[in-house]
Amino acid sequence: MTVAKLEPTAFKLVGEVKFNKTRSHRYELKITWKQPAKKIAMVITNYPGHSDGIVMDLTTMLVVNRVSSLGYDGVVMVNLFSKLGLKANPKGLIEGADSVTDQVILLEANEVAQIIIATGSFPKLNVMAKKRQAQIISSIKKAGFEKKLALLCDSSGKLAHPLAAKVRKQWILTEKDMAIDK
């Protein structure tokens, strides 16, 4: 029996998280897998899950997998609402974002190659989410980053969230119809 010499593949996964002082808002979760990370995507979802830089929830894992398969060196994950724990308390959307939330999104938008809106049907079903998404898209456009914007859609062209079964293995990004009224 011949023993083959195995060469390990080395890589460095770097995670950074930005919280407010009381850790009640998570503004950003940045994960890079190529150092230095030159080509980064921003993915905007609805509200933060349980990922904190060490612990990863399913949405974070799916986003990292898909963004990596698109050829990026890393991802910045931000949300319409930055407040933690909103899933259990939808009425908390009223206080779901603070003044820092949009500042972080715009600062990071300047640094990334693409901004992917991946909110699925939530803004269509929730008036506050629809208004919030429109505000974020408007501020991104006003800042001059409109050409970076793309929507995550399924194969039928419907807006999708990373957890949607139809986009778990492949993302379809479209740059049209930023009104998001589909």
Chain-wise SSE layout:
Blueprint (H helix, E strand, L loop, with lengths): L13 E6 L6 E7 L7 E6 L12 H12 L4 E6 L19 H11 L4 E4 L4 H4 L1 H16 L6 E5 L18 E3 L8
Parallel strand pairs: 3-4, 3-5, 5-6
Antiparallel strand pairs: 1-2, 2-4, 6-7
Percentage of residues in strands: 15-25%
Task: List segments where confidence is low: pLDDT < 50 over at least 5 consecutive residues.
Answer: none
Measured as a percent range, the helix fraction is 10-25%
Largest sheet: 7 strands, mixed
Total number of β-strand segments? 7
Structural class: alpha/beta
H/E series, N to C?
EEEHEHEHHEE
Instruction: Tell me the overall shape.
Output: globular
Distance between the termini: 61 Å
Q: What value does the average pLDDT take?
A: 91
Figure out the total of helices.
4
Widest sheet: strand ordering? 1-2-4-3-5-6-7
Cα gyration radius (Å): 17 Å
Using brief descriptors, characterize the structure shown:
182 residues, seven-stranded mixed beta sheet, 24% helix, globular
What would you say this structure looks like, in words?
The chain is α/β, with parallel strands linked by helices. 24% of the residues lie in helices and 20% in strands. It is built from four helices and seven strands, in the order E-E-E-H-E-H-E-H-H-E-E. It has helices at 58-69, 99-109, 122-125, 127-142; strands at residues 14-19, 26-32, 40-45, 74-79, 114-117, 149-153, 172-174. It has a seven-stranded mixed β-sheet, sandwiched between helices. The longest helix has 16 residues, at 127-142. It is globular.
